[in-house]
Amino acid sequence: MRRARVIHDGRAIDVVVGDDELRAADGTALHPAAVRWLPPRTPLVLGLALNYADHAAELDFKQRPDHPILFIKNPSSLVGHLAAVVRPAGVEYMHYEGELGVVIGRPARRVRRGEALDYVSGYTVCNDVTVRDFVENFYRPPVKAKGFDTFGPIGPWIVDAADVAHPEALAVRTWVNGELRQNGNTRDLLFDVPALIEYASDFMTLPVGTIISTGTPRGISNVEPGDVMVVEVEGVGRLENSVVAEER
To answer: pTM for this one?
Structure first.
């Protein structure tokens, strides 16, 4: 089942997503064109840096991390499917990062690897937008680089974990203006989903609804106002967002 949050008639509601329609809790059928998509409800978004070897290589980072490199995505950065992403004035290099998002379904603390997937309630699609100008050291939290308002598109929905048979082998692709820029697979994660949950939950409680954005494969490139980014995770969904210029 696919579940989403949307705005319809001026209010936020939860819906179940079918092939051609959305269905509200009261059974009302809604056309997708009649709603505005919201990001999933989440108390915490954890991001991963350098979790694909090929992405690390394209950044000329030669040392493989010996543990997951985590950061927290700013809550004000989160936007939904079809929302605009604002390119800040004066930056030189802003790029997408197409990623699989993992949704935690119950409080997770000191979870063992072998039990980690029992804590996953679903999967979604993330685009960890970044201004490369402000990434100075991979081991320092890239708060500014990844924290601008609108820099965290997530959605369009959450797919139940039971409906994603092989999260360890999902294609992750990103297009810009219809041109394929990223073509990776979660089988190539340096730290897979169970490892990420085990590592993070060892020192912090992951509350219900936490989203772990698992990292991006190689293929980043600069995007400008007018560009359209589409991130697709196999069996999960397609997340589309356009880039607009900052207005001051």
So the answer is: 0.96
What's the pLDDT band for 57 if we cut at 50, 70, 90? Answer: confident
| 160 Cβ neighbours under 8 A, 6+ residues apart | 1, 2, 3, 121, 122
> What does the radius of gyration of the chain's CA atoms come to, in whole angstroms?
17
What architecture is domain 1-37?
Roll (2.30)
Tell me, yes or no, if the two domains 1-37 and 39-245 fold the same way.
Answer: no
Q: Kindly report the CA angle at 31 between 81 and 167, in degrees rounded to 5?
A: 45
- The string over 198-223, giving b where at least 16 C-beta atoms fall within 10 Å of a residue's C-beta and e elsewhere, is bbbbeeeebebbbbbbbbbbbbbeeb
In the chain, domain spans: 1-37, 39-245
Mean pLDDT (the chain, rounded) = 95
Work out whether strand 36-38 and strand 2-8 pair parallel, antiparallel, or are unpaired: antiparallel
Rounded to an integer, what distance in angstroms lies between the CA atom of residue 22 and that of residue 38? Answer: 14
Q: What pLDDT shows up at residue 121?
A: 98
Question: What is the distance between the alpha carbons of residues 105 and 245, in angstroms, rounded to a whole number?
Answer: 37
